[in-house]
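FORM 7B: Structural annotation worksheet

SECTION A. Query
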Amino acid sequence: MPNRKLIWSELSGAVAVYAAAVFLHFAYALSGGSALWMVFGAVNESVWEHVKIYSAAYTAWALLQLCWLRVPFKSYVVAKCVGLYLLMGLMIGFFYAYTAFTGSPILFVDILSSVVFTIISQTVSCLLTLKCRKLSEYYHPALMLLLLYYLMFFSFTVFPPKLGLFRDPLGGGYGIAGLRVI
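SECTION B. Predicted structure
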């Protein structure tokens, strides 16, 4: 029975993550520029800011799951770390791969791919939690990878590297400075 609860939670989590990411996409602008929403919401249209909102939603769902599911903590952290990095890697890799052919982003493709990649990352996380018996052995490396990610997460909106991943295609700026006020 606990397996059924986890599977249901992961599948419904894909919907919850997507819905939360849509909210986070507009949260900063709707808040009037709140510092809290600057950290969790998208401040511009860069690829990084889109990855950031999905990873924030993914993490929030993972924390909620942890509150109501009875899963082995260390294994669950490792599975969610793998899912998070998979989600980010798929989103970034696919975006740059398909735009290399199309020359520019296609909104429908971006939306559909983010839904598919969220489902994939939730599914992989679930399978790892259910099937991998020795997953907890990777707890410390996973914890370090999560700490590294969240260091980047909290830093790159304010202090982004001058790389294409962080460049706002609409305004040409980077991070919070890349925000176009309409």
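SECTION C. Observations
The chain is about 70% helix and 0% strand. Residues 178-182 have pLDDT under 50 and may be disordered.

SECTION D. Sign-off
Analyst initials: ____
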